[in-house]
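Progress note, sequence design subtask.
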């Protein structure tokens, strides 16, 4: 069954036809700003399996590095996905409707988390990025 998502105002909707991978939450200061939250929460998606359903014309992009950016709704501001070379490679878990069928497996950049954030016990935490060999 397809995974579906939408922004806060509902103008933009999408559908994903293959399972999400490697759900993560990043606690770095950049992600706090980008997601207006204590951390980001996102998963990787096969670009070929991702399809905008409605409201694609309401999308705008914040380009972070050449080729890489975040796309969000210009009406309500929800951050929907990460793009690379114009294709969707990651989606924010908060905009998915229902069960994304993945759980956050790694909490990264916990070493720079906000002072006010309390990390839950028993989650896999990394001080910075995920080591290459994991
Ligand atoms: Zn919206
Ligand atoms: Zn981050």
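Output:
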């Amino acid at each position: 069954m397809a995974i579906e998502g939408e922004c806060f105002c509902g103008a933009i909707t999408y559908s994903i036809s293959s399972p999400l991978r490697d759900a993560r939450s990043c606690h770095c200061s950049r992600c706090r700003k980008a997601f207006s939250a204590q951390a980001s929460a996102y998963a990787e998606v096969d670009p070929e399996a991702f399809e905008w359903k409605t409201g694609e014309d309401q999308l705008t992009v914040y380009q972070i590095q050449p080729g890489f950016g975040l796309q969000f709704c210009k009406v309500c501001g929800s951050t929907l996905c990460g793009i690379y070379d114009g294709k969707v490679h990651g989606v924010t878990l908060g905009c998915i409707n229902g069960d994304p069928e993945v759980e956050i497996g790694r909490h990264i950049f916990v070493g720079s988390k906000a002072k006010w954030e309390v990390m839950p016990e028993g989650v896999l935490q990394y001080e910075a990025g995920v080591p290459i060999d994991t």
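The CA atoms of residues 47 and 88 lie 5 Å apart. Work on this subtask will continue into the next period as scheduled.
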